[in-house]
Amino acid sequence: MSRDINNKFWDEELETLPREELEKRQLADLQEIVKFAYDNAPYYKRSFDEAGVKPEDIKTLKDIRKFPFINKTTQRDTQGVGSFLGELAAVPEEDVVFISTSSGSTGVPTMRQKNKKDFDEFQDTESRWFWQIGMRPNDRYVHALNFSLYVGGPDVIGAQNLGALCIWGGTLPSERLLFVLKTYQPTVIWTSPSYAWQLGEKALKSGIDPKKDLNIKKIIVAGELGGSIEATRKAIEDIWGAEVYDFYGLSDIFGACAAMCEAKDGLHIAENHILVETVDIHTGEVLEPGQVGELVFTTLRKHARPLIRFRTGDIGRIDTTKCSCGRTHGRIHILGRKDDMFIVSAVNVFPSDIEAVVREHKGITGEYLIRIFEKDFTNKYAVEIEKSADNPKSDDEVAAEVTAALKARIGVKPARVVVHPDGGLDTRSEHKSKRVIDERNLDYNI
């Protein structure tokens, strides 16, 4: 199928469906997938029966609220039970063409599988996101993501299906990746926000000016929250002279389930594949669109391992109003992970708020580390930063400025701000950077 490269939509009919028609299609797919899961996945048959619900109870989209949640614990507990694919699987192993695994950062790595239809629709969605940010067949694209069992690895196929020239970079060392960027002059790259920023800094220190010596026009970032933080996005754009677009992926579903458009007002989520709910993190009560809570996803077309009411652990909101770009699929705004959020003096603190302050503050490098600890049976936090080499101010002056900025943004000041020299923090990484250290002994479950 040939496409008009001047049309900003990959699938204009789908992406601009009136809300009523979109929800009509969602309902039909929801009814089918819930029945399919009940009939074919042992876990859902048992779970639905125990909850006293059945597929025929789905009359409207809101009826999904009658069904039980699942989460990562459910995935771990059912993995390998009864068969190699486990109790969440709804197709036999011979139908599966692809598996990926989670990182295992919050427990035992869990396996995710797709049949051919699942995989093909996954890649069509990736093509849609690439097209949405302006990638076209005449682009050269470097896929600088991990290929080792990582669900984001195959996303490069979506770029190939679009017609772009693709360079399967993977997790190359910085020096090698910079060689690729300088030699092949690609126009688009995808990596993590922290690595995009660090790679630009390394380029400058090695005598390469990303704006003059390289040809990157668009940078896709994912895996961390930075791409949706304006200050971080601007810091990356300033180094590269390129547009930065945030993608949101979930290993349980797609490499990228949602992506920014030119409006950069949240990330459009593929609502033809995912039904989105937002629930109260304490009670599980469903919230109205626009309210902040934990995002809950139900896959509408994924048959190898359906996910019915999967609690993602991500805190955010969904906006279902029509975007200025013309797309009607909802936009999610992610604030952070439920696991990362902490409470200080009754204030919910997200690392993303701290990052926003650090990245926009002048005279510091943008690197940071957060330490959460307890004192007198209450939560406290400290922030470690780096002072730029050319900053003439004293460490105390810098610490006072950053403390005031954090208090103004978050509403509660840190217990301390520790200032290191440029390069003094061990937070730089080839890919994701670890920036939060929890030193608490008490159980602060939220």
Q: What's the arrangement of strands in the largest beta sheet?
A: 4-3-5-6-7-8-9-13-12-11-10
Strand tally, please?
Answer: 19
Query: Class by helix and strand content?
Result: alpha/beta
- Count of distinct structural domains: 2
Gyration radius, in Å: 22 Å
Low-pLDDT windows of residues: none
Major β-sheet profile: 11 strands, mixed
| Overall pLDDT score | 91
- Overall outline: globular
Strand content: 15-25%
By CATH, the topology of the largest domain is Rossmann fold
Helix content: 25-40%
Could you give me the name of the CATH homologous superfamily of the largest domain?
Answer: ANL, N-terminal domain
> What's the architecture of the largest domain, going by CATH?
3-Layer(aba) Sandwich
- What is the CATH class designation of the largest domain? Alpha Beta
The N- to C-terminal Cα distance equals 49 Å
Number of DSSP helical runs: 12
Task: Write out key terms for the chains shown.
446 residues; Rossmann fold; GMP Synthetase, Chain A, domain 3; 2 domains; 4-stranded mixed β-sheet; 11-stranded mixed β-sheet; alpha/beta
